[in-house]
Amino acid sequence: MNIEKWLSKNTLRLDGKKVAISGSTGGLGRELCKYIVQLGGELILIDRNSERSLAFAGELKESYPDLMVSNIKADMSDIESVRDAADRLSEMEIDYLILNAGAYSIPRYTCDNGYDNVFQINFISPYYLARRLLPVIECRGGKLVAVSSIAHNYSKIDEGDIDFSTRKQASLVYGNAKRYLTYSLFALNSPSLSVTHPGISFTGITNHYPKLIFALIKHPMKVIFPRPRMACLSILKGLFTDCNIGEWIGPSILDVWGRPRKKSLKTASTREGAKIAKIAEEIYKKTNINP
After folding, report:
1. 229-263 per-position pLDDT tens digit
2. Hey, which residues does 263 pair with through a beta bridge?
3. Under 8 Å between Cβ of 26 and 101
4. 141-162: b or e for each residue (b if 16 or more CB lie within 10 Å)?
5. What is the rounded CA–CA span in Å between residue 84 and residue 220?
6. How far is CA 20 from CA 67, 72, 144, in A?
7. In this structure, are strands 247-253 and 257-264 parallel, antiparallel, or unpaired?
8. Number of C-alpha atoms within 13 angstroms, CB side, residue 290?
9. What are 148-190's pLDDT values in tens digits?
């Protein structure tokens, strides 16, 4: 696939536009930032590691000396940190927000708000940012793009164990959080919102296997699955594509390979989607109350 040709057909210039990206120093995040800079956008890097974020900003400015770039620290497992980031972003008149940060198989613990940290990182924090900042983005004619995952279809929700805190299988815990994120965002019914997914790509999020197994599979994974520069095109397409309720953007072949395309998603019933939306709003209302 000729990426430059694809860019010319599927993207627009972003000169004068402010684009905020969470998880900006990860595998997909770094490539997204490079595309945004190439399109002339101003970057706002949202990351939990300030040193790494500042270093990445420096790297980008070496190649693009005129680049306007800002840094915001936000730990997606800490709702106070996320609130502070939302406050800052709401004052910066952002045009685009890409909710890219996520975590898969990591040490588990209960956050201060009582929810599992994987659920917090992959659902509660990005949903909070979406609810806080979507009105601003709508007013500016921009777009909010959320990164979901095909893992969202690994299980159905459990109202008795909302955050899957009793489950141990990483794919179920992560998939449950992405299921909540996907269908809660659909329920917002905003023309300024796109849900996307990159398929399967070789990034830091895949480094959860035991060292021996990872050493055996990492090279085949690089050959079989799209690299981050290709995989993040689905996310980039979300910036320039209008989606209806229940549509998402991802790789065209088996949701893993191929050019990005928009398609209808029917992995949850209307009833389950309504439950997710209700629970999401209840959590947001609690989260939005400053202690």
Report:
1. 999 999 999 999 999 999 999 999 888 889 999 99
2. 248
3. yes
4. ebbbbbbbbbbbebbebeeeeb
5. 41
6. 14, 9, 10
7. antiparallel
8. 6
9. 999 999 889 999 999 999 999 999 999 999 999 999 999 999 9
Superfamily of domain 3-287: NAD(P)-binding Rossmann-like Domain (3.40.50.720)
For 104, residues 6+ apart whose C-beta sits below 8 A from its C-beta are 118, 170, 174, 205, 206, 208
Alpha helices in the chain (DSSP H): 3-10, 27-38, 50-63, 79-91, 117-119, 125-139, 170-186, 211-224, 228-231, 233-238, 270-287
pTM for the whole thing? 0.92
Q: How far apart are CA 148 and CA 181, in angstroms?
A: 7
Count CA atoms closer than 13 A to 196's CA, side-chain side: 29
Residue 14 structure tokens: 């972003």
Task: Give every CB contact of residue 26 below 8 A, 6+ residues apart in sequence.
Answer: 100, 101, 203, 204, 205
Question: For the segment 209-228, what is each residue's pLDDT rounded down to a tens digit?
Answer: 455 444 544 555 555 667 88
146 close to 195: Cβ distance less than 8 angstroms: yes
Give the integer Cα–Cα distance in Å for 163 and 235.
26
How far apart are alpha carbons 48 and 80 in whole angstroms? Answer: 13
Q: Which residues contact 79 (CB under 8 A, 6 or more apart)?
A: 111, 112, 113, 120, 124, 125, 128, 287
Neighbours of 66 (CB within 10 A): 6
Q: Which amino acid is at 28?
A: L
